[in-house]
Structure formats: C-alpha cells, structure tokens
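Holo model, magnesium ion. Inputs:
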Amino acid sequence: MGKQDAAAVLRECFRGEMNLIEVRHAIKTYSTGEESFNALDDVSLSVKKGEFVAIMGTSGSGKSTFMNMLGTLDKPNSGEYYLDGQDMLHLDSDSLAMMRCEKMGFVFQGFNLISRTSALDNVCLPMIYKGIPEKERIERGRKALEIVGLKNREDHMPNQMSGGQQQRVAIARALVNDAPLILADEPTGNLDTKTSIEVMKFFVSLNEKLGKTIVLVTHEPDIAEYTQRIVKFKDGKIVLDQPKTEWLKHRNRET
Ligand SMILES: Nc1ncnc2c1ncn2[C@@H]1O[C@H](COP(=O)(O)OP(=O)(O)OP(=O)(O)O)[C@@H](O)[C@H]1O
Ligand SMILES: [Mg+2]
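Output:
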C-alpha cells in the first residue's frame, strides 16, 4: 500500500466507516494452452460493514473466481485486496489461515458437510482449527444450531437431513466462529423454491439481527431481491452496481 492509500484507509478508520472489503483493480488470468483470458478483468469493489450484496451474472462471468479471491482460496495475478483493513495478498500462510478463521465463514452450493459426521460435529469443526477447548466448542456449536432452528437435529448425519436442513447446518458452521463476513456461492442453487426462500429469509435475519456482512452469489433475480445491493459481472468485469431499490425499478421496467 502506498503512503496515500494508507492515509486514506486511516482516515476512513477514524470516521468509523471503514470498508470491510476493499478490492482494487483485481486481475485474474487463466491460460488454456496457447490462449489466456482474464476471468477477473480489472475488478474494484468496496463493501461496508453490515451490507448484504448479491453477486449476479451469467455462467462463466467470474462470480466464483471473485468469491474464491475474497475467501483467499485463490489469488489474483495483480491488484489489491484488503479485508478489515488487512492486506490479504501479502500475508504469510499462518496469518492468512488466522484471518480466514476469524473474519469469514463460507457457505457453498453443495453444502460441503462431512458425511457420517453429526450436525453438531460438522458445526464444531472450524473451532477445532481455532484451538477452542471441547466444552466451549460444544456449547457454541449447540447455540449456532439453535440459531438456525436445528436444535433437535444435532445428532443427525447429513444424509438424514433435507437439503434445506443441511444448508442450515452449513450456515451454522459459517457462524460458529462469529466472523463478521459470510461468503455464500449459490447457497440456494441445489434447493427447491420453498426451501430457497426459507434459507434466504435466514440470511436476511443474520444480516439484520446479527449485523453480518454477506456477499452472496445467485443467478436468480428472485433470490437477489432478498439482498440490499446488486453487483453484476459480465466477462470478468463489474457492469452494474446498484442498490436493490434502483435495480428493482429497472427490472420492473424491463419486464
Ligand atoms: N482453474 C481454471 N482454469 C482455467 N479456467 C478457469 C478456471 N476456473 C475458472 N475458469 C474460467 O474462468 C471463467 C470464470 O469462471 P467462474 O467459475 O468464476 O464463473 P461463474 O461466474 O462462477 O460461473 P457459474 O455461474 O457457472 O458458476 C470461466 O470461463 C471458467 O471457465
Ligand atoms: Mg460459479
């Protein structure tokens, strides 16, 4: 970070409105044989604490590439990424693992629960990485399952639960370390409409009641309506970034 950038970040800190996510000019290049193309093509995005953002765009537009960068599962070839003021692209692997643990929870389209492992043990897993003692792990795991309305399912294995219940276990797992940011890549992609709505209402309450910042990928406008801000990708670029209220006006005019 240059001197001027550092000064800008500090100024925002003191005003108490620092962005939780600050991505500047991110470029991610993939090469296939002779050809190479930019899956992220100069992407800049800021997200404030407490925002609920939908990432939209057609298949292949770069949504997951962007989410993987936010989750530090992948690095851009160039650009900058600050999470809660921390430069995420120049951390050693221990500090990066700690930031991941402290600052973010992940929810995936395919739930990604560990099979033959109870709901409670699945939820408790991130706390093992964090070195929390067993008694506290179980207490916090139970509390997280209670928050997602699955208090009576703690001993159930993933294959004994519905898709919506499994996704709620995954959300409880994302909540258990009390990270401020939840990253969700098509969390309703494998769910029917009714269950999708339940899960989305749940994300809304996490955002409104617990103040979680949420970045959520979806293809579906009906799902995006539950968020507050719509960011649309096309060919690796952000082509639209609007408050939901604005986006709805245009959407209604189009249809
Ligand atoms: N590891 C990789 N190697 C080469 N190309 C890749 C790799 N990962 C992604 N891509 C390409 O980068 C582009 C963006 O992929 P990405 O997964 O971000 O799309 P997406 O918007 O999430 O699509 P979908 O809605 O289908 O999930 C695509 O053209 C994809 O084929
Ligand atoms: Mg994707």
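Residues 193-210 form the longest helix (18 residues). The two ends are 45 Å apart (CA to CA).
Archived with the compound record.
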